[in-house]
Amino acid sequence: DERCSIAELSEFVELALGEGAAGGRMADVVVLDNNVPLEDSRDKTKWERDIVYGGELARELRRRGFGGVIVIFSGISQSE
Are 16 and 71 contacting, i.e. CB atoms less than 8 angstroms apart? Predict the structure, then answer.
């Protein structure tokens, strides 16, 4: 069970946008999990819960000007 911190999610968004410490070119494609569990449920500064949905990250990327392809996947099979 891999969990992310709020700081890691922020760094990911900045990297995809070509901003921050990594600086450079905006990504062409971003692949997101539909359910991203947060490392510490007490760290609810932005998301107000212990999970972030891929759709929320996608909206944040678009809001900040990301123009590339966004792929969101889920581990849940339709047949289950």
Answer: no
